[in-house]
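Worked example (supplementary).
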Amino acid sequence: MRLTIERRLDQPRWLAVVVPVLSVGAALVIAAIVMLVTGHNPISSYHKLVDAAFLQTGSVGQTLIAATPLAFTGLAAAAAFRMRLYNIGGEGQLYMGAIFGSGIGLFLGGTGSASPGVIAAMVAAGCVGGALWALIPGVLRAFLGTSEILTSLMLNYVAGYILTYLVFQSQSYWRQTKGFNASVFPTGKPLPSNAVWPAWTLHTQGGMPIPLGLFFAVLAGLVLWVLYKRTRFGFEVQVLGDSTGAARYAGVRIRRKILAVMAISGAVAGLGGASQVGDFSHGLDADPNGLQRQAYGYSGIVVAALGRYNPLAVLLVAVLIGGLDNAGNTLQGADFPAGLVGVIQGIILFCALGGELLVRHRVRIGRSVAAVA
Amino acid sequence: MNHALLVVLIASGVAYGTPLLFASLGELLAERSGVLNLGVEGMMLVGAVMGFWAEQRLTIGSGAVSLILGLVVAAFAAAVTAAIHAFLVITLRANQIVSGLALTIFAGGIGLSSYLGTDLNLADQPANHQFHAFLPSAMQNWPIVGPIVFGQTPLVYLSWVCVIAVAYYLMRTRPGLNVRSVGEAPGAADAMGINVVKYRYVHTIVGGAFAGVAGATFSLAITPQWVAGDSLVQNSGWIAIALVIFAFWRPELCVVGAYFFGSLQALAPELQARNVNLGPTELWTNAMPYAATVVVLVLVSWRGAARRLGAPAALGTPYAREEH
Amino acid sequence: MRKNKLALGAVLVVLAVVAAVLALGSSANAKSSSAFKVAFIYVGPHNDGGWSQAHEEGRLYVNKMLGSKVQTTYKENIAVGTQFDQTVSSLRAQGYKMIFATSYGYVTPAVAAKYPDVTFEQATGTYLAKNVSEYYGTGEDTVYLSGMAAGAAAKCNTIGYVVAFPIPELIRHTNAFTLGAQATHPGIKVKLVWTNSWFDPAKEKKAAQSLHGSGACVLGQNVDSPATGQYSESAKVPWVGYDSDAAKFAPKSWLTASVYNWGLYYLSRVKAKMNGTWKPAFYYGTIKDGFTKLAPYGPGVSAATKAKIAAKFAFLKAHPDAEFTGPLYDQSGKLRVPKGQKLQVLKGGTNSLYGMNWLVKGVIGSPKG
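After joint prediction of all chains, the assembly is encoded as:
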């Protein structure tokens, strides 16, 4: 007996729903076995997980906050991966967006309540910062054919060291130098009050603040969806993603597409960086125990893959993964090892990834159809 | 003379470059067969913890036996971890980048490696045994070659054997040549009767074993202990991925790159201790390995030479027979 | 079509199982205890052998002393920023209303205002509010004493010191260490290597190696891992640790280390909160409080040195932070603190313990990193 895997000729719609649900179901079963083996009660653990992500007081708000950066980095990855342009530099592009966004916020900001002009400038600067950083691998790929996978990955580290340098190893414009607290520990200069992004509070679950950045993320998702599904640009990107040869034959200008897609991808990640500054840290966060610990850029790639690079699905998956991250923090503690949380999250990701196969392929046990015919 | 900056840097480069060398040899094998595994950091951490466990707990015979057992167990544990990636990307044809990142989450500092070390109670314990520089101290004190060549632990010499073995395997043996064709043109390799799937599995898994030994180099030689989190390995896995490219996918050049990157890690403390200030040292010594890799990538592709220099053309793409 | 139905059925089964699990879980969760709930948030792993582990020992001490009257938990590897906020929110929902945040930067004015019903205690910070206390202590006193052990053990004129970040907390400790070393070994120099990381064993080992190679014959540290000690043991040089009794990593080289005892403070604050006497305060624990102490000596500390340290220990117990009494000179030889003046913890800008950005005479290295 052997396992045969064949590509499906048609991909029925119901599969797109059934497969992810079944994959997660399988993951939960495997993770439950792991928990049983390691002496933890899977039922109460799962309950805690869902409780922490969506049910208990304030949890949905926290999940949406966690989802915001993942939505940006997920959309950024999706925008590029659709064309098989593997930009895994979302992390660095996010940092650059944070650096540019906070720089403009500090420069233009003033007293008073949130100013749409300043916020718009921060958004623009974040996009520019991320896009410029993404264009380095983009230009190299377009003109020299250098693999963007590895250059974009390497540039994440370079961006991280620059971020650290600006606050920890220099007296840069971004570093808070005034006041006693500034001397206690290096921190970013706080944004002036009109550069702080307002949150919109929903009065459920004991007050649920929804960050402005989340609205931008949803907007970015919609724009990307329209761009990729409804325009000639999107069609050409799709053709390019399927086959370079066919695209060239169809007259697609490949270099331009690479540059445009990398810039779009980087801009979205950079906007995520600006949102981190405007929505949450309210200054450049270079703390080695802060933003850089979160690895949003890398998680975003997983989010994009699970959302099958569809912008709207990515938004949804970002919320789920954001919830899973939060749930992990809630689950771990004196009675539940933190390491097991990572294991369970890994199992869920593996199953979701593996399940993808079933959408695109048919698995048969026994001889393949081709062999019979 | 043995305290001259250059000698110290090269000697440290060899010592600190050794885990990078092991890990990059492993990644090189996987990539040559067409599989990109970004989970090196996670596999190293699993190797580090299980190697340390075996050395501490499997007390059979002498210290040397424990240490060798440590290496074997580290290699095995990381190989099993790599097998997950292999199954996902080879059999299930998942995206290699995404699967590698998922592997890092699964196995990494707040995943499996942390769980194992905490559950096996390995934290805050000095190693019972560790790999030492073992040659006579007179030899270790010879000018220049003493600290660089003779003052090293057995793992350094083991890594040299591995480099020669991998280079010989890839260049001079039939399976080695087959791997290269699997990574270059899996379709053609398949047509020639090479079992693409089997080759990819074997090389991904053996690559994981190398990463495990790399992790054990930290927990059994450089800083002989296990610590929770990812600070024991501290980004070495990612540097190793950079290194493979930096070395044009060639084992002998991995040595040069590993020692160069290793020296860079030693440069910042060494310059501080010597009271030398070369600008923002922390920034440029840290960023250099990554920036240098980008530059090398550019140089390689500039002349359209990637193929000739060894970049596996099918790197990152799944292979499915019926699609061709 | 049959497959269609089968698959749909499977989805329904999965959903039903999940729902059942949740329903079961809720009823299991309903039982609540009357114990007072306290949570501890760690920036690293609870078993890191350094900073976070010392706090974890404090938590276990609270457990031991109060038994079933309290229920404690911890959250490890929590990043500064939104992740901390989320963790607090979730702990609060589970009834944890007192939280010890054991690293700088966790509790911001925004977080304190957002959770007015949660009592925060933050280590090493300076921010006070109605529901926020800050705590730390005169680690510098015992670091000074450990410096005395280092100075006495030095047979040359340089001690190497591996330090994490060029920030006032560590500059203060470096200065205290140097002053202590100079007390037993007049004129000795302390050479620094900044690792720019809180916990990086390989880098710390390399720093130790570089310092030893450039002439240091005793090593000290203000980082968390025992890597400096492991190097010292192999190089046969005496070693002063920090933050934990790590003698087991280098039994021959070990001299001593300044260590913190967080448990006593935690116990007193938890008790205060339980009986309603808790008030926000800036606590700066001393030797007398039992907050900071010296780890047991290693074989390399002579009886004469022990006697000298004991005398100074008694003095510092009665006069905390007395080592920072003028005259104190900076690296360039400029008088920074005039004779008779003593530095205060928070007041005095760069001439305060929390704002110190200059190194004393005899330190080789830059206070900027």
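Two points are worth noting when inspecting this output. Confidence is low (pLDDT under 50) at residues 26-31 of chain C. Residues 2-29 of chain C form the longest helix (28 residues).
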